[in-house]
Amino acid sequence: MHSFMFYIHFLVLLPSLALALPHGLSRTRLSRRSTEETRNFTVPIHSRKRGGVGAAHERRGSYSGSVGLGDTADLFYTVPITIGSTNTAVNLDTGSSDLWVVSDACKTNVCKTSRMPAYPASQIQPAGGSVTLQYGDSLTGTHAKGPVAQDTASIAGLSMPQQPFAAISDTNNTSVMNGANGIFGLGFPSSRCSQVQATVINSKFNSPSKTDDFVLGTTQDGPLLSRLAASGALEQPMFTIALQRDTIDIGGQSGSLTVGKLPDGVDNSSLTWVPVRLYTPKLGGLNPPSFAPNEVCSVRTLPLTLPHMTILRPRKFQVYPLRWEVLLDAVYLDGQKLADSTVAPQGIANPGLSALIDTGNSILRGPSDVVNSILRSVSPAFAANRNAAPTFPCGTPHNLTFQMGGKMFPVDPRDFVSQNQTNDATTCIANNIVSTDPPSAGALFSWSLGDPFMKSTLVAFYYGNLTHPSLDPPRIGFLSTVPTDAAAELDQAVDDAEANNGNFETTSQIAPTGSASKISIAPSTLAAPTAASSSALAASVPSSTSSSDRNKNGAQPAAHLSTIAVLSTALLSSLAWTLF
C-alpha cells in the first residue's frame, strides 16, 4: 500500500518537480555577448515563441554584473549603489523588497551619525505618496518614513531609469549608523512586501481593487532587481550573494553581489536548488491578476476506492511567491535532529517547517522552544539558569545544520561563536541565535536564516517568471562553503586570539562606492494579454526539462527527468506543504 501511494504521489507531483530545478547557467563578465555566444546559451526553461505577458519574462539577454560588499563586523553588509548623481551604500536585504536612502532632510539622531552621502531633498522627483516602512520583528522593530521619489538607479554596473525609491526623512534604523545610507530590498514584488511599488501603483491608478495593475506595473515601478529580472536583458533572472567573514577568523568567501548569473567559477550542478514557498491569498499572498487565470496549483485525487482511504475532491489554489522562503526538512545540532517546535502559529493552521533566507538579519532566529533547547545543549550556564548568558568554551565547535532539498547545510562553528568579553578567548557566548515570532499569515516561516548562515553558504536567488510563476517557478540554490576542517580552523582562531591578548580578529570593510561604468537597461512594458494570447501562453508550457536536474544526493545531472529513479523526499514534502 505504501509503495502504491508513493507511486500515485509521484505521478501527481512530477510536473511540479520538473519545474523546481533550474538548468545550466552560463558565466560571463559585465558585457554584451557576441551573437555566437548568445546562440549557445542554455536557459533554465525552454524558450517561448508565443506572445503574452508571461512570454515577456522568458526572454534572455546578455547582461550581468558583479560588485564587492562592505561589512561592518559581520552585522551589516552593504553594497554600493548610485541613485541619480549620489554614490552611496545601502544595506543588502533579501528579507524585504523596498529600496530607500536617507535624504539630507532627515535630522534624526541616527541620520546625524551617517557618514555616507545623503540624497539631496532638492532633487526629489515625486512618484506619488509617501511610505512608512517597518523592519524587524515584534522584539526589534525599526522604521523609515519619507516620500516616494524616482531617479536612475545603478547597481553592479547595471542601470535602470525612473526607479521608484523612498527618500527617507525620518528613521531610527541602525543600518544607517553602520556603513549604510539605507536599505536595498531584494525581495519579490508584492503588495505586502513592496510598499514603495504599491504606493506608486495606488497613486497612478487610484488604488485599484484588483492586482492587474500592480503585477503589470512591476516592470515600470517594481523593486530594482525585479525590474532588471523582468526586463529580459539579463542572462538569467537571478542574483547570487556571498558574504565574507570579518570576525573570529577573518576570511571565508569573497563578499559579492552578482546580478544576472552565477559567480565566475561556480557551476550550476554544484548547487542544490529548492523551490521557493508559494503563498495563497488566504495566507497573505498576492491576489491573482485576471489575466493569469491558470496560475493555480491543484491537488488532484485519482478515482480509486481503496480500504482505509478517503478520496478528497480536487482543490485549487492561486499561488505566487511572497518572500525568499523555502521548506526545511529538519534542523540538527551536533548531528542530532532537533524536535519540532510546539509553539502554536498565530491565527493559522500549522504551516510546516520553513525558513526565510535573509541577509538583512545579522543573526539566526527560530522558534523559542527550539532555540532554548539549543542554548541548553551548548551552555551549561544557561541549562542551569535560563536567565543566565548562554556561555560555553570558545574552543568547543558546535554544528547547527539545516537540511533543505535532502542535503545538509551547516553553520560554520566559527559563525556560531561570539566573543563574550574582551581579553577573554576562553569563554564565549552563543548570541548569534535568538527567538522570534511564531508563524502567521504573510510570514509562514518559523526560522530566519541570517548572516551566520549566509557566511557559510553561497546562495543563488532565481526569480523565474514574475507574472506566471508556473511557467518558470522561483527557487533558491545553495552551496555550502564550510570547510571539512572547520573545527580545526576554530581551534586555530582560538589560539590566535589567545596570542592576541585574548581578543579574536575583527574588522570592517567599506563598500566600494564611487563612479563606475554603467550599462543602461530599458524596462520592458507589459500589457494584459487577450484571451487568445493567454491560451497560446498556456499551450507553450513545456512538458519536460533538460539534463541539469539533480537527485537528492547532489549527483551529476541525469540524462532526462524520466530517467530519475529516486526522488527527493524533501522536495516532495516541500511541494505538498506549498499547496496547503
From TrEMBL:
UniProt xrefs under SUPFAM superfamilies: Acid proteases
One Gene Ontology term of the molecular function aspect: aspartic-type endopeptidase activity
Sequence ranges assigned to domain Peptidase A1 in this UniProt record: 77-479
Pfam families cross-referenced by the UniProt entry: Asp (PF00026)
GO biological process, one term: proteolysis
Metal-binding in keyword set: no
Signal peptide extent: 1-20
Keywords annotated in UniProt: Signal
Keyword flag Ubl conjugation: no
Family indicated by similarity: Belongs to the peptidase A1 family.
Protein name: Peptidase A1 domain-containing protein
Source species of the chain: Dentipellis fragilis
Organism ancestry: Eukaryota, Fungi, Dikarya, Basidiomycota, Agaricomycotina
